[in-house]
Structure formats: C-alpha cells, structure tokens
Amino acid sequence: MALLRDDFTNAQAFLAARPAVKVVDLLLPDLCGVLRGKRVDAADLAAVYDQGMYLPGSMFALDVQGGTIQATGLGFDEGDADRPCVPVPGTLFQSPWLGPGVAQLQVQMLDHDRQPFFADPRHVLDTVLERYAARGWRPVVAIELEFYFVDPERTGAGHAQPPPSRLTGRREHRTQINSMADLDSVSGILAEIAATCEEQNVPTGSALAEYGPSQWEINLRHIADARLACDQAIRFKRIVKGVALRHGLEATFMAKPYEDMAGSGMHIHVSVQDATGQNVFASPDPLGNGLLKHAVAGLLSTMADGMAVFAPNANSYRRLRPETYVPMHATWGYNNRGVAVRIPISDAENRRLEHRIAGADANPYLLTAVVLAGMLHGIERRLPAPAALEGNAYTQRLAAPRLPTDWPTALARFGTSSVLHEYLGDRFVRHYELTRRGEMQDFALRLSPLDFSWYLEQA
User: Fold this and answer.
1) Is the distance from CB of 319 to CB of 326 less than 8 angstroms?
2) For the segment 428-457, what is each residue's pLDDT rounded down to a tens digit?
3) What sign does the dihedral 356-358-363-367 (CA atoms) show?
4) CA of 66: how far to CAs of 59, 311, 435, 445, in Å?
5) Where, residue-wise, is CATH 3.10.20.70 in the chain?
6) What is the pTM of this model?
7) Which end of the chain is more exposed for a tag (fewer CB within 10 A), N or C?
C-alpha cells in the first residue's frame, strides 16, 4: 500500500490550539509491541515531519528486555545503522496523564531508500492489506483486550499480587466474572481511561470484569481500517498503563501474570467490506456464507503456523491450558467461546468471525496480519471448512489438529510456513523467527528460584 505521510500543517494547528504542549513523545512499537522512541521539544517537530526522526534499525531486532539479537544482522553487522522514522497520520494527541505539557506521536520506520522498512510490523500488515485492496476489499476489524490491574508492590517472592479493593480495602484472590461490585471499585479509573481514549480517538465500547482478580476487558469498536485499528490498540495499551500509574496501580497485558488465575487475551473480530461497502460475509445462515467458511478454513489451516505471533514469549505459553477460555485445537463454531474461531451472534448483515487464540502480549499489527493472511489464503484457494464444533471443545475427542503449546514448536512451525512466507515476506519471517528464537534461548539459560527449590538439595 502507498505509504501515508502526515502534513506538518496538521501538527502546526494542533500545537497552536494547545500552547501548553512543550514536548512530544515519538512512539515506535517494536516486534514485541514495546514502545520505543524519543522525547523531543515541540519546536523540533517540524524537522521530524520534514526529515524524520532517526533510530537504528535494530529497534526491530530487540528482545523484550531491549537487548539486540545480533543474529538478525541489524546490530553490529551493519554498524547499528540509523533509519528515518516518519509520523503516522492522525496520531498526534495530548497525553493527559502526563500533564498538559506532553503530547505523543506515533512514527513508522523507513529504510535507507525511504521505502517502508521490512521489519516494521505496521508495514508487514500493509503487505497483507495490499492483497485485499487488489480485490476491492477492506477488512473491518475490532480488537478486544484483557488486562490486569496489579499492586505496584510485589510479593516476597517477587510475584504480582492483586491491589486492595478501593471500596473494601481487601486484597481479593477470587474470580467474579462480570461482577458489578468489582466494576464499582475501579469505576473512576475506568472512566478516566474511557475519557482519555475519547480524547485520543480510541473508540472504546463495553468494559467488564473478567475471571481474574482485578482483571478487565475493554472492547474497541469495529472500524474499516485495519491499520488504524492497530494504531488505536497501541494507544489504548499506553493509556491504560499511564492512567493506572496515575492512580497508584500498575496495569499489565502480560499473558499469564498469576499461575492459578485466568490469562489475558487479545481477540480480534473481522469482517470484510467490498467496494460498495457491503459485508462480503453477510448471510442469514448463523455459520455464514461460502466466503466466510473459506476464510474460517484458511484460519484453521494456518493457525499452528501463526502461534509464534499469537504467543510471542515464554510467559505466553503458560496461558495455554484447557478450560481457561483458550482454545487448544484449530476448531470453529457458532456462539461457542471454547473454539479457536467463533462466529458470534449477529444479524445477517453483520456476520463476522472472532479469532480467540492470541494473548494480550501479542503485537496487534502482526496478529492482524497473520489473521488476515490466513483468511485470504482460505478464500483464494476456496478451502472447505470442517464441520463446526458444538458443545465442550475441551472434553470432546477432536479430529482437529492440536495447536503448539510450547515455544520451540511454535517457532519451527512459523519459520517453515509457506503461507506466511508468501503473505508476510521471506525476509520478515526469517527475521521474526531469529529475534524470537534469540530471546527464547536467552530465557532458557536463566536460573529461576525453581531451579534451586527443586534441584539444589535433591540433585
């Protein structure tokens, strides 16, 4: 797709209307979804729009701790070379939790020839969207994110713990799905999150208490622009964390912060509009029409290939347990939260699918790219969908393939996936596998408290 560039006149108007803004945080989400970047004086913003802000390409070769995976070739092999990062249109907003003097702007990386940089996840998504655009189609995307509020003070063992209730003062260690009392206890924080989302053009919908103590889900509304949906998800995560800190809490999108509590997921709802704005999946059949079934079939056939994106780090795989609303097999069905691809209740015109595998720690651009690639793979090859599953997806003896539940297997599937090589590009697939494999190997070498409590005396 054509690279969209913002005009500095938009920034000038923004700053003129907000004279209190003195600095702007330039935000670049890396492969892990971690925000990197710089803080610049507002007076220097013109140069950012004209020439770009320079950051090393190794921003996209980092592990979650910020260490460069040298095997990618983006570190010392190329002298840790800088590349220009240019503003993403429509992403200049104030950051109210930081005070009136701070704004933020998302940027995207270009290569030395000022073409889109292959490793920037936003551009990876663009390569998939180009194939939809060639058919005159636009994916309509909504992202749901789960997260926990946690106490900034850790336990004696260094683990996360729930914060004391702001109503009772008690530290809850229970689960109460859709609890209105739990909602009341943080209603002020959630209201500030909602207001800040509105200020930053992040269209939020419902908020509900999830299964874990102080676990929440907030839904972002459907929009017919997949890139923008992911930009909004990035802003949403920063808003949640920033507002929580202002209230003396931490917010985490870690996939599995508690051993015995529910993990946090990132679900993505997708339909597709044609050139006239009509939903190509529209159907009176609750399971959808032929196109929707082909899309489902493509998702199911590529789901194991994409697990390294859906579960991007070591903790991600601790979330993959039976009967915790995390599907373990490549299954689909109607109005069933135990399957991997759910067809939600809707009217005929709004028929869509919901992808339910990914953790909240996934990169939204890469998640969306892999989901859309799988869907189009099924549509282009007219793949037949298997029978829809009914009932308990965890207790039935399923013919559907079991999904990888360990990091090495997931990375091996990702690296050898012909479909992902085709849709995401050979270079990116190799690069992503190298970065994730580097982090995996480093993580495996670290000694944990369990090493000593299990083996020190017994061995």
Assistant:
1) yes
2) 999 999 999 999 999 999 998 889 989 988
3) negative
4) 8, 18, 11, 17
5) 8-119
6) 0.95
7) C
